[in-house]
Fold these 3 entries.
Entry 1:
Amino acid sequence: MPGIVGFVKKIDQENGLEWIRKMGIALETEERFRRDMYTTGGFGIGRIHLGLTQTHPQPVWNPEHMLALVLEGEIFNRAELEHVLKNKGIEQSYSSDAELLLTLYEHLGSDFAPLINGAFVMVFWNLKTQTCTIINDRMGLYPIYYSQSPSGFHFASGIRALVIDPNLDRSPDQTAIAEFLTFDHMLGQRTLLKSVSLMPQGSILTVQDHNLSIQTYHHFQYHKEHELRNDSLYIEEFIYFMRQAVERQYQGNLPQGLLLSGGLDSRFILAFMMNIFSKNPLHTFTWSIPNSDDARYAKEIANQARTQHHFFELKPDWLLDLGEKAVRITSGNGNIVNLHALATLEQESQIANVIYKGFMGDAMFGFGVRPRFWADYDDETRMEVHMEAYRDYRVLTFDTPIHSEIFTDSFFNHTSESWRTDFRDGMNAAGIPQMTDQRSYFDLTQRVPRMTINGVEVARDRTLVRLPFTDNDLIDFSLRIPPYLRMGRALMNQAFIKQFPQYAKIPIAQTRLPMITCAREILGRNLQFVQWHMRNRGLTKLAGPETRPYKDYNNWFRTVLRSRVEETLLNSRALERGYLKPQALQKIVKDHMAGKNQTVRIGALMSIEIAHQLFVD
């Protein structure tokens, strides 16, 4: 996967160049990537990239050759940024986004960061003051990890480039592991290693004279009070900002594709793409088990939109070939059963260089919102109610009541309070008492940058990924929506039905029903009613499956992948990690092989074990 590597340390230029090369190779070994490297006494920077965007050589320098910039990512409001400079009397042409951003930094300093609408990480080096400044976007869409050791300060787009430092402490962060085993993702800035941190979203990290400081320049602030408005006005606003977001990102001459599922988020993007730029050739991709609900409805949507649709079968053996790579790319932050975007990526990249995803639409517009949030609780009960929302959606890997049963005594005693503190702090950071807003804030600042982003990370291994839902103006609008319009994703559903009624007649995978009342919806609902009665009378086979999922790790872990599961989790080293009691780990695997669904737990445990082999052992 492409990205950035760098250091600030006491080292001469020749040895620094060798060091930055090693970091670059550790980040990505394959020769298909392009590499830009620069070192001077005490500082080194490298950019490993696909050559799809920001193709000019980097770093770029100011005219005095005293200030340099390396940029990874994209900006989508270039004209607005040029206008900012023009208002300051600076009129010139810019050969690249990097050159424009360097000019902004030179004249505005880091104050220009909130003005940028994009997905990026920027690294500035001031030769005169010997200062390294790293700035990321509001969402932290290009993760940067950093460490400080006796060797100096190092940063990179993946932990794999940091562990080449022989002085780096590789002790695991037990609290981070407990969080991963609970929520399927880590919290805050924790990583697998105690000595490595994730750079916060919307931040400016500065290193000078061996001193590190981090300043947050953006906070997602939900409205505490809402004006009385007709719902139709919110619908009109949402349609406006959604259209604008797609217009900003749907650009360029590279072949473009959209990952199309049977859900709403990617369907929304597709509908606007075809509505705005119907003449542009667009590919759509769906990977899935054949004849899944997602595959069938995605194909129908693609036919309606008249895209060039491509179906790729999701096969279990991808994990045998690419599972370790997926864990390496995501720095051990992702459950391996959620990283299959890598499975068919090479085939997709041969068709399209740019891929759009419906990333984050759920988090912004109602995922996790529950009716019980409309009540007042004391602080302790409030946190338990937030945990209940996880239980409602069945997204807790190991629920809290069984921690003491399966965790070793030392691991349980060490982490039982610390992960709860992180969870509480993550919710309270919203700075607002309304629980719906707390949960939505938590999703934007915890679940998205620590879990959902992993699918984007693996897709970047071969493509440029664009995420229209992360547009600044669209996110800001989502913060103004009253909680009741997030419940059940009401606003998003109503807006889609109003704007694209023909697309709304096609069922979505979650319900297997159209979004609007029509003949097909009535027929489908009646069929589900009949099937429900048949299942209650023991006629399950005749009724057919309730859903047809796009993946089947439940079965794959018992068959094609069984040996991989057992080799990974039941060896002596894995059993003695000290997190789960050996007999508990053995029982989880045994129960799954006997028919009990332990898929998510096995996936999480495999990811942790593989990550230990890569970064700890």
Entry 2:
Amino acid sequence: MASRRLPKTCILEVERKFRSLAVPQLTQYGGLPHFKSLKKLPAKVIHDAYYDKDKLLSQSGAWIRKRDDIWEAKLKKGGSFLNSRFEELSSIEAISAYIRHHTGINESESRNFGLEPIAVFTTTRNTWIADDEFRIVLDKMDFGHEVGEVELQKTLLGVDGNEPTEQQKQAEMQLMDERIVDFMKTYAWAFTLGATGKVTAYFEWKRKNGV
């Protein structure tokens, strides 16, 4: 009997940004309706360095970063600035292949894949898990900016050993985004809208301060 190939997977992340919390402290019973559940995770400090080369990656919708010395890639899969949809890469091989394909640069991880740092900052992150699955994140950067996100993440399985198709990814991310929209409408008392992303805010801060 022929062996069945293991399904290939990809990690999808959908997020919607908010400017800040609309309440002094986020608690399960801080507004109406109450969260079904709310778990506060320990705060943590994150060191991020974002890399690019002549804007080739950012203009193609990719963010390549080194977070606490671990390489990550977030590949934009639609949405808008406030409503982002990403496929995430974490393996060095996949990140290197993506960079090589979109820039023509073939450099090793030890040489930062031939990329240059474009933004470097430290973030203090507070995180809550609401209703058992929605991740609420509030980030405060060392240059004075604050931004939050409501996120859902899912591992999507391909069929019969194949990669998930682009159609599968888009359909799943649409459902994830609709669920986040409903969540934020239900708990509108918790969020102040109108956010500026952290990398955009970093460049604005550098420009204003002549850094």
Entry 3:
Amino acid sequence: MDFNFNSHRSPIYSQNGIVATSQPLATAAGLKIMQNGGNAVDAALAAAAALNVTEPTSTGIGGDVFVLYYENKTRQVYALNGSGRAPADLSLHRLNKDGFTNLPPYHPYTITVPGACAAWCDLNEKFGRLSMTDILTPAIELSEKGFPVAPITAYFWQPGAEKQLSRTVHGNELLLDGKAPQVGQHFKNPGLAKTFRLIAEFGKDIFYQGEIADAIVSVVQNAGGCLKQADLQDHTSTWETPIRIEYEGKYIYECPPNGQGLAALIALNILKELDLKSTKALSAERLHLQIEAMRFAFADGWQYIADPKTNPAPIEWLLSSDYAKKRAASIQRSKAASGILHGTPPAISDTVYCCTVDSEGNACSFINSNYMGFGTGIVPKGFGFTLQNRGHNFSLDPNHPNALAPKKRPYHTIIPAMATYADTGELFAPFGVMGGFMQPQGHMQVVVSMLLDGFDPQTVLDLPRFCIEPAIEPHSIALEEGFSFELAAQLTAMGHSIRPISGMNRAVFGRGQIIMNNREYKTLIGASDPRADGCAMTYL
């Protein structure tokens, strides 16, 4: 089968910095900071704050953050875990006592400590150049003056208004006259501007010990949750050693567990043993092998990814060549395997990812999320942001490594990625694909298209994707429009159950950003996913 896919956008080429986000105004905020002397970290933080304003359907300071930062002068990659923990008073015993056999997705018990604010401030303190006041100014101005709501954001605001915001006491702070804003309507968020002004003046302490903390605890407890002041005060971000594998002459970096980046690396390691070069891009044979490798990776990830303080994953073993060979040997080239219990919850597009590279060659791969859209939809009164529902990811099986426990971090879906040239350590690309459990699948598909097929970043993001689904049928695969009927039939013959996806439902396939460094020409190449409202952009 010959499949000629034509990209619909052109990549951005630059010898200065590039910012790539899912909202044009957030990209503009990052570029403004970069032009005012900020580095890649400053620009990423400004973009993240602006995304909180313009895309609250996915992200916010009431959620969590993971970051990979590439420092050009040392050629080192640093990982920041900005995820929060369960309240000290939340336990399986409490849930059993309250009659829960599973947690409703928006229940206040799903609220873990928001880690974003601490992560923003800690990242700025360690690697930033400008003050948080400078960095947050564009987002404050956007919040106060208002902005026109973009089409895809407006589409997802509507169900969020119905399922989350309209059912919470202060959810109207993120609505217009009680309703979701329409495409092009101007939306102001003075409460969020207030939040950012306080953080700019007083730092993270105001969020975890001051008046913002008071508002968080009050609204959660009034809603029936158990988050307390001490839970917020005890929160810390953690700097960690990133995990990596070598693939096609590049080191691919991910944050270690409790994030699911490990699953992406396991899948890529398996693919190294399957002679993918003998297959054609977007062919049924290629997709089948990628799907099967990802299934095995999910099976391992769901078993081992948890809070490393309580259940450390055997990372060295899972990423070993011997283990990859063993897993690859179980994959048949023309038949879907049976009995793989990948245990993957539903894929959803609920996160924002942005990446930045500055003129000095530093790079930031940055991901921020509420989890399910607006998270719980619970808004601390007067502060204009929602609280995440990340605790919904805990297992309620007491014997599972990811079992809910007090002060424990849950299995986390949000994962930034970074690639370097393996021979020199030079930057190759910060990249990411946001969207729940699609993310490791997206990372794997992006890496293969970039490194094995040599496609430019924009083509890589424009290409149609697959997504393994947790349907009742054991081999359910969502297949994006752009793949042929012939290919779908071939995958069906191999034992996969194919569900074609088109239109706005394509959000299931995630939304990515890439900035690639062509070291031969000393040129940056930026790209942004057409499944989102955003863009990649540079400056003069």
